[in-house]
UniProtKB/TrEMBL annotation:
<dbReference type="GO" id="GO:0006707">
    <property type="term" value="P:cholesterol catabolic process"/>
</dbReference>
<dbReference type="InterPro" id="IPR002397">
    <property type="entry name" value="Cyt_P450_B"/>
</dbReference>
<dbReference type="GO" id="GO:0008395">
    <property type="term" value="F:steroid hydroxylase activity"/>
</dbReference>
<keyword id="KW-0408">Iron</keyword>
<dbReference type="Pfam" id="PF00067">
    <property type="entry name" value="p450"/>
</dbReference>
<comment type="similarity">
    <text>Belongs to the cytochrome P450 family.</text>
</comment>
<dbReference type="InterPro" id="IPR036396">
    <property type="entry name" value="Cyt_P450_sf"/>
</dbReference>
<dbReference type="InterPro" id="IPR001128">
    <property type="entry name" value="Cyt_P450"/>
</dbReference>
<dbReference type="GO" id="GO:0005506">
    <property type="term" value="F:iron ion binding"/>
</dbReference>
<keyword id="KW-0349">Heme</keyword>
<keyword id="KW-0560">Oxidoreductase</keyword>
<keyword id="KW-0479">Metal-binding</keyword>
<dbReference type="GO" id="GO:0020037">
    <property type="term" value="F:heme binding"/>
</dbReference>
<dbReference type="GO" id="GO:0036199">
    <property type="term" value="F:cholest-4-en-3-one 26-monooxygenase activity"/>
</dbReference>
<keyword id="KW-0503">Monooxygenase</keyword>
<protein>
    <submittedName>
        <fullName>Cytochrome P450 130</fullName>
        <ecNumber>1.14.-.-</ecNumber>
    </submittedName>
</protein>
Length: 401
């Protein structure tokens, strides 16, 4: 790659999105506090330690103005802020209340259901492959699994699933664009989101009157959680828990296909899967960057970031920082010790769904590698998401079935 291409950080450029890692390295080494003079302008942190400290310091780096570099993201949504856009102390309180309903036990109870779903999907994929059809790892497995898990968790009745899937797809598109105000006011995606809110609003009312054993009923029963709190949480789960999880699975298969020795080892030693998942997330994070807004001027590496400006945290860069992960930071090592990473962020906003994501991905890899130890992907026919914030796939044809 030419050096002139390497130094330009442009989160919208297709070349950057295809391979952001040389640019990340340049930023870390040469310009760890980067002032991006675009419209809108923003600042960028790329080193692991800087991001780690900033994200944990919510008094200085606030989430209350939204998580992208778009200035009017919360207003554009026309919503009250959800958990992910609140600062302590309100965030602390809401997260505590939500944790009463969103418990590890409730998540763990999904395992067998998810396993049955994956087996069913794999059997279907194998049949279609045997008939000579192209099977798509992302569309046929990685992406449907989290949608199924969330619909089940939220207690969306089976009869309504056909409505749920398009809402998820619309919301995912908006999420990839970072809830850009223009996209929101223009498209049918906004209608889908409004429809989803209406649906979940009604579901909450119904569950309050007649509780089931689903998450919505459990949250509705928590004292001090308002309808909006429950609705907002459902919204963040659907927006933040779908594509992220699907892309973890798809990226994992892609990484293993580039390292057949490690794929073989993982198939032989499934107990390594939980650690391998963290390594996949570290190398190819579903969430590449999210922002905060400074509440005071901050001086870092001799550069002053003014008060009231957006600062993007390049999680995907921090996760490959040699200063944290050593000289092999860019290489896959499913046995690597990973005491801390930024794949699920850190601090008060650390992903509350990380257990659910890891459960789904673990089950998917256990079943995939058992049934198809040579599973791979055809990158020449793959299609990536075009997003400045997330990394992943629209389509990823499978091989080795
Ligand atoms: C591999 C999959 C996933 C990845 C990579 C991921 C990543 C993240 C990240 C980076 C954050 C922090 C946001 C910030 O820095 O402001 C976050 C927060 C969050 N995630 Fe996830 N996530 C995943 C799966 C899920 C799932 C399955 C759910 C469903 C419950 C979920 C729900 C949430 C919620 C509600 C928050 C906000 C927590 C808070 O603000 O306290 N995520 N996630």
């Amino acid at each position: 790659m030419l050096i002139t291409e390497v130094v330009i950080y442009d989160p919208f450029a297709p070349e950057f999105q295809a391979d952001p890692y040389p640019v990340y390295r340049h930023l870390r080494d040469e310009e760890p506090v980067h002032h991006h003079q675009s419209d809108p302008p923003f600042w960028v942190l790329s080193r692991f330690a800087d991001i780690w400290d900033a994200v944990r310091d919510t008094a200085t780096f606030s989430s209350a103005q939204g998580l992208t570099f778009y200035p009017d993201e919360i207003g554009a949504l026309g919503l009250a802020p959800t958990i992910v856009m609140l600062d302590p102390p309100r965030h602390t309180e809401l997260r505590r209340l939500i944790s009463h309903g969103f418990t590890p036990r409730r998540i763990a109870a999904l395992e067998e259901l998810l396993r049955a779903f994956v087996r069913d999907r794999l059997a279907d994929m194998a049949c279609r492959a045997a008939d000579g059809e192209t099977v798509d790892l992302h569309r046929d497995l990685s992406s449907p699994l989290p949608t199924f898990a969330l619909a089940h968790l939220l207690g969306v009745p089976a009869a309504d699933r056909a409505r749920f899937d398009p809402w998820v797809a619309a919301l995912t598109t908006l999420q990839d664009d970072g809830f850009d105000a223009k996209a929101l006011t223009a498209g049918s995606a906004a209608e889908a989101v409004a429809e989803m809110f209406g649906y979940f609003g009604d579901l909450i009312t119904a569950r309050r009157a007649d509780p089931g054993d689903d998450l919505v009923s459990a949250l509705a029963a928590v004292e001090h959680l308002t309808d909006w709190d429950v609705l907002g949480f459902c919204f963040v789960m659907v927006a933040g828990g779908n594509d992220t999880t699907g892309n973890l699975i798809s990226h994992g298969v892609m990484l293993l296909d580039a390292h057949h020795d490690q794929r073989e080892r993982l198939a032989a030693e499934p107990s390594l899967i939980p650690n391998a998942l963290l390594e996949f997330l570290r190398l190819e994070g579903s969430v590449q960057s999210l922002g905060r807004t400074t509440t005071r001027p901050v001086v870092l590496h001799g550069v002053e970031i003014p008060e009231g400006t957006k600062v993007m945290m390049l999680y995907g860069s921090g996760n490959r920082d040699e200063r944290e992960f050593g000289p092999s930071a860019d290489r896959l090592d499913i046995t690597r010790r990973i005491p801390r990473h930024l794949g699920f962020a850190t601090g008060p906003h650390f992903c509350i769904g990380s257990h659910l994501a890891k459960l789904q991905a673990r089950v998917a890899f256990e079943e995939l590698l058992r049934a198809y130890p040579h599973i791979g992907v055809d990158l020449s026919r793959a299609e990536r998401i075009a997003s400045p914030f997330t990394r992943g796939w629209r389509s990823l044809p499978a091989t080795g079935l």
